[in-house]
Structures are given as structure tokens and as C-alpha cells.
Amino acid sequence: MFTDVLKSQKNKPSPRVARALEYFQALYQVEALAKGELPDGDTRASYTHRLRQQHTVPLLNTFKAWLDDLAPKVLTLP
What we know:
It comes from Burkholderia cepacia. This protein is mostly helical. The protein has one domain (2-74). It contains three helices and no strands. It has helices at residues 2-8, 15-34, 44-74.
């Protein structure tokens, strides 16, 4: 969805699209990190859970707050 908008805007995406894509990129970075090398004595599940709690939860909370703030500005009824 956001990537379709980005492609349609030629060279410069709108600030809203760019910001949303930054959130998605950050989320994918956490997932890539979770697939990396395990610390000694850790299981994949516990390592992934810990990374998501430390990084993904705060990112999603911030993203949701931004979307909640943005919604009244873009979702107006005629």
C-alpha cells in the first residue's frame, strides 16, 4: 500500500509515506536481527521474543500514536 503510493509519486514521496516506510524498515530490521546469530545459551524463540519486546513493541506503540494523531487529519467526512 505505502510502496504503491511511493512509486506513484515519482522521485519524492510525501512526508507521511516516507515516515510510514521508515517505521516498516525499522520493524524489518528487528526481524532481520532476530534471524541472526544467537547469543550463547539462548534459544531462537527466547531471543526473538526478547528482541521484539525491547524493540518492536516500542516501535509499534510510537507508530500507532503517530497514526492516531494523523487519522483525524486525513480521514475527514464530507
